[in-house]
C-alpha cells in the first residue's frame, strides 16, 4: 500500500511540475511576442544586423568539398639513399622517435621505415595550433640531429592536411622529352605556383630528373691506380666557383672570381683526376660521361596514353580551397606566357568543380523550397504576408547557421551544406504549421469580435 501511494504521489508531482513548466513557457512566449510587437524598430534593427553579420560570416567561411577529418599531425621525413629498412629503423627512425617524445600536447607518435626513407608522424591534440606544434618539433629536431649519422638531415613536411590536394595538372608538351619537361616543372613552374597565397607546396611527379652520370671502368681504374673516391673528389673540387677579391685599375674596382661550375658533359669529361708524369688523366679516360635521369621508383601515366609530367598543388592548413584554386588558375595563365612554344597546362583534377556543384545544389534547394512554401501558403491561406514570414525565416536561419560555422572554425563542405539542406525542410514544415496556426487564431478572434 505504501508503494502505491508513493507511485501516485510521484505521478501527481510529475504532472504538476510539467504543468508549471508549460505555463512558464507559455507566459514567456507571450511576453516575447508582446515585447516584439511594441518594439518593432528594435526587432527590425536586430534582424538587419543579424543578416549583415551572417552575410559577413558566409563570405569569410572557407569553402571546400571534402570535410577535413584528418588528425592534427606533423610529418618528419628523412632520406638516406641506399640504406635498407632495418638500418633506417635502427639509426634514423628510433633516435628520432626517442627524442620527439615528451613534446607538450602530443597524443601519439607513429613511424614507418622503408628503403632509403623514414617517416615519423607526430600526432597532436585537436586543440593544438598546428604552427605551434611545428615549432616544437623543429626544436626537438635540432637536438636530435647529433644522434643521426653524418650527412643525414631530417625535415618536416608541408603545413597541409590529408585532404590538401586541391588541384592536379599535367604538361602538354609535344616534341619535348620527359627530362626537359621535368626540368621545366621543377625550376620554373613549381617556384611560380608556390608563391600563390594559400599554397603550401607544389609536388612534382613524372619524368626524369636530369643528372650527369659517370660510368667508370674498373679495369681502367686499376690500371691507373685510381680509386672511385679520387674521381668523386676531383669532380667535386672542379665544380665550384671561387672568389678572388677586387682589382683596382684606372680608379675602378673589378671583381675577380673564378667560374668553375660544370656546364655540359664535355667539361665534366675533361676534369683532371690525376697525373702520370706530365700527362693528365681525365674523367673520360676512366669511363663514360653522359646525361641521364635519376633512378625512379615509379612513373605517371595519364589514361593509358603514355608518361606525363605534372604537379600536385597542396593547400595550406585552414585555407579557403575555392579561393586557392582560383588564384592558382590565374597564376597559371601568367606562367603560360613564359613557357616554351607548344607547352601548355592540362587539368587532371580540380576540386572546385565539386565545390561549385555543392554550392549550386544548396542554392537550388533553398530557392525551390522558398517557392514551394509560398505556393502552398498562397493556395491554402491566400495570404501574402503569411507567405512572406516563412520566406524570410529560411534565409535568416541559413545565415544564423553560418555564423556558428564561422565561430567554430568549420568549413562549408558537402556534409555541412547537406545538413543545412535537410534542416531547411524542417524549418519550412515548422513555418507552415506556425503560420497556419497563427492565421487560424487571428481569424477566430476576428470573427468572435
Keywords:
single chain; 449 residues; alpha+beta; Multidrug efflux transporter AcrB transmembrane fold; Alpha-Beta Plaits; Multidrug efflux transporter AcrB TolC docking domain, DN and DC subdomains; 3 domains; 4-stranded antiparallel sheet; 12 helices; 14 strands; 52% helix; 20% strand; disordered N terminus
Describe the structure.
The chain is an alpha+beta fold and 449 residues long. The chain folds into three domains: 2-65 and 355-448, Multidrug efflux transporter AcrB transmembrane fold (Up-down Bundle); 71-160, 2-Layer Sandwich (Alpha-Beta Plaits); 211-293, Multidrug efflux transporter AcrB TolC docking domain, DN and DC subdomains (2-Layer Sandwich). 52% of the residues lie in helices and 20% in strands. α11 runs antiparallel to α12. Mean pLDDT is 83; it is low at 1-10.
Give a quick precis of the structure.
With 449 residues, this protein is an alpha+beta fold. It has helices at residues 2-38, 40-60, 85-100, 130-144, 178-193, 218-224, 228-237, 265-269, 321-336, 351-380, 384-408, 414-448; strands at 73-79, 106-114, 117-124, 155-156, 165-172, 199-205, 210-216, 242-249, 252-258, 272-276, 279-282, 287-293, 310-315, 344-350. Strand 8 and strand 9 form a beta hairpin.
Amino acid at each position: 500500500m505504501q508503494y502505491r501511494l508513493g507511485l501516485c504521489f510521484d505521478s501527481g508531482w510529475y504532472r504538476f511540475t510539467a504543468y508549471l513548466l508549460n505555463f512558464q513557457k507559455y507566459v514567456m512566449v507571450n511576453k516575447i511576442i508582446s515585447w516584439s510587437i511594441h518594439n518593432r524598430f528594435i526587432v527590425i534593427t536586430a534582424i538587419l544586423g543579424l543578416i549583415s553579420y551572417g552575410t559577413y560570416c558566409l563570405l569569410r567561411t572557407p569553402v571546400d568539398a571534402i570535410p577535413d577529418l584528418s588528425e592534427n599531425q606533423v610529418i618528419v621525413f628523412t632520406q638516406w639513399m641506399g640504406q635498407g629498412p632495418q638500418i633506417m629503423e635502427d639509426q634514423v627512425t628510433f633516435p628520432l622517435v626517442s627524442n620527439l617524445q615528451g613534446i607538450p600536447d602530443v597524443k601519439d607518435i607513429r613511424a614507418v621505415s622503408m628503403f632509403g626513407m623514414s617517416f615519423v608522424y607526430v600526432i597532436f591534440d585537436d586543440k593544438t595550433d598546428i604552427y605551434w606544434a611545428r615549432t616544437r618539433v623543429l626544436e626537438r629536431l635540432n637536438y636530435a640531429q647529433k644522434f643521426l649519422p653524418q650527412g643525414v638531415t631530417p625535415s618536416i613536411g608541408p603545413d597541409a592536411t590529408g585532404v590538401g590536394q586541391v588541384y592536379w595538372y599535367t604538361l602538354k608538351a609535344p616534341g619535348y622529352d620527359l627530362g626537359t619537361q621535368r626540368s621545366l616543372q621543377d625550376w620554373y613552374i613549381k617556384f611560380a605556383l608556390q608563391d600563390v597565397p594559400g599554397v603550401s607546396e607544389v609536388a612534382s611527379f613524372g619524368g626524369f630528373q636530369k643528372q650527369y652520370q659517370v660510368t667508370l671502368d674498373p679495369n681502367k681504374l686499376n690500371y691507373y691506380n685510381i680509386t672511385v673516391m679520387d674521381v668523386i673528389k676531383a669532380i667535386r673540387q672542379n665544380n665550384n666557383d671561387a672568389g678572388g677579391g677586387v682589382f683596382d685599375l684606372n680608379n675602378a674596382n673589378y671583381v675577380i672570381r673564378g667560374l668553375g661550375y660544370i656546364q655540359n658533359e664535355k667539361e665534366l669529361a675533361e676534369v683532371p683526376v690525376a697525373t702520370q708524369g706530365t700527362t693528365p688523366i681525365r674523367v673520360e679516360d676512366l669511363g663514360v660521361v653522359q646525361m641521364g635521369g635519376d633512378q625512379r621508383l615509379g612513373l605517371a601515366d595519364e589514361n593509358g596514353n603514355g608518361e606525363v609530367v605534372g604537379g600536385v598543388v597542396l593547400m595550406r592548413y585552414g585555407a579557403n580551397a575555392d579561393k586557392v584554386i582560383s588564384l592558382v588558375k590565374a597564376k597559371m595563365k601568367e606562367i603560360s606566357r613564359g613557357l616554351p612554344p607548344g607547352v601548355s597546362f592540362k587539368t587532371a583534377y580540380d576540386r572546385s568543380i565539386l565545390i561549385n556543384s555543392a554550392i549550386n545544389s544548396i542554392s537550388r534547394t533553398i530557392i525551390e523550397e522558398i517557392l514551394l512554401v509560398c505556393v502552398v501558403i498562397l493556395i491554402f491561406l491566400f495570404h501574402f504576408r503569411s507567405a512572406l514570414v516563412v520566406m524570410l525565416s529560411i534565409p535568416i536561419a541559413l545565415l544564423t547557421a553560418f555564423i556558428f560555422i564561422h565561430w567554430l572554425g568549420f568549413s562549408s563542405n558537402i556534409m555541412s551544406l547537406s545538413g543545412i539542406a535537410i534542416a531547411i525542410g524542417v524549418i519550412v514544415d515548422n513555418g507552415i504549421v506556425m503560420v497556419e496556426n497563427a492565421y487560424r487564431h487571428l481569424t477566430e478572434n476576428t470573427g468572435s469580435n
